[in-house]
Fold this sequence. Notes:
The protein is α/β, with parallel strands linked by helices. It has helices spanning 12-17, 21-31, 50-60, 79-92, 108-141, 178-192, 195-206, 231-238, 272-287, 336-339, 351-373, 383-402, 406-441, 446-450, 454-464, and strands spanning 4-10, 36-41, 66-69, 95-98, 152-155, 158-161, 165-168, 175-177, 247-249, 258-260, 304-306, 313-317, 331-335, 348-350, 465-472, 494-500. The chain folds into three domains: 4-141, Resolvase, N-terminal catalytic domain (Rossmann fold, 3-Layer(aba) Sandwich); 152-287, Hect, E3 ligase catalytic domain fold, CATH 3.90.1750; 304-500, no CATH class. The protein is built from 15 helices and 16 strands. Strand 9 (247-249) and strand 10 (258-260) form a beta hairpin. The longest helix is centred in the last third of the chain and has 36 residues, at 406-441.
Amino acid sequence: xxxxxxYARVSKREQAEDSHALEQQQNRLRMAGAEEIxxxxxxxxxxxxxxxxxxxxxxxxxxxxxxxxxxxxxxGRSLPSCAxxxxxxxxxxxxxxxxDGSVDLTTVGxxxxxxxxxxxxxxxxxxxxxxxxxxWEYLRQRRVAMNxxxxxxxxxxxxxLDHETFLCxxxxxxEMSRAKVARDLVDLxxxxxxxxxxxxxxxxxxxxxxxxHTRSTRSGFEHKGLFGRSPSGLRRWLTSPVLRGHLVxxxxxxxxxxxxxxxxxxxxxxxxxxxxxIEEILGVNRERRGWGAIAPxxxxxxxxxxxxxxxxxxxxxxxxxxxxxxxxxxxxYFCRAGAVGACTNKNYVRMDVVExxxxxxxxxxxxxxxDLAEEPLETQEDPKIVELRAQIEGLEKLASNFGSNPALxxxxxxxxAQIEGLxxxxxxxxxxQSDLIETLLTLRDRRYWDVLETTEKRSVFRLLVERIxxxxxDDQPLAITNNKKKTRQxxxxxxxxxxxxx
Length: 502
């Protein structure tokens, strides 16, 4: 049984600021008599630290006599967590030695002192979080670029395409910058229309070796900041707003994501039109149940939903009519949940019926928009912007009555940044709507749809249609029956609701 165990912990922030912090803790623990040292590089707010969990299991099993730490906040920075940890030490009878402050859990005074130290540790942690949050807010207000993706670099707090020489092609001797390679990556994806095929083509073109049967798979340049050497990483890179000239904060948190438009529009790698094509390709690949799958995709695949359960409807080609010895050249959509008995909607709706309904809805909407275009439009400001402007006016009144205050100025700057962000979003929505309306108005003639290829229809539908809900109508003809068995009822009438993006 190990008699004395030392526990050392540094957060990633501390490790970045002082690379010797962990080494110093370990040295002090050894000098205090620790026979074994457990170490974590994790935030003190996290209770699932692996080495900490191992330590506390040894404490609860009374397999250690004494635990040594440099400070009590090494055990944790959360008050409830520290209280539970100290309670485990007290119940097990294991001694806790804190080098920067004597703690005796067997006395009331010692337990009180330990509690005070835990409170101070949590308070310090919260102060660090507050300073970090205010620091990030200050950077966002100044529109400072963060985490430049592959193909870019930061120049004076702004994203710029990286045109410095990155590599030299052996065959042609052409010098390639990261911006050129990044653009090449986009072109390869537009050509292959598959994430995996793009990575494979990139590796083949630049002679990058891959190790398919090990955990250290290399699917891209051995260079930090490309796309994580994986299809999902490439997808995140392709859809990054930075590549379209926008600045993004909290990209990994959809609820907090903030996009500031056109911060470096002159440094775009991908145009808006190309981005729409990329989104379409990614969407189609998802509908094919895999990246780059070769299963057929019909114009409305992925857009048709079952109104009964909400599941996506899968597509199926009609089989041959053996009774009449003829081939059937039409397809159906069916509820995937109904196919496995999880939904009452177990019948098929013909593709041509749904497509005709969608085209009719688009033509009707185009005619309405055309009529509205002849009338002058009244522009109305976003109510949220009006509310924020009123808040600024209130702050200005406070400043005029009680004098200027730095806190008031920071609050005004923050609200102004919110207003500008809302205006940029509104501008982007207006531009997107204008593009959709222009596309729709060109398709008002029903004959135009008859000459469109399947791939062209699919592109238009994905651009203009949000979803299509289908379910059998309650008004159906009676099923045909005979003396031997009841034939399966085929629904002839369907309720089809088309939801458009404009």
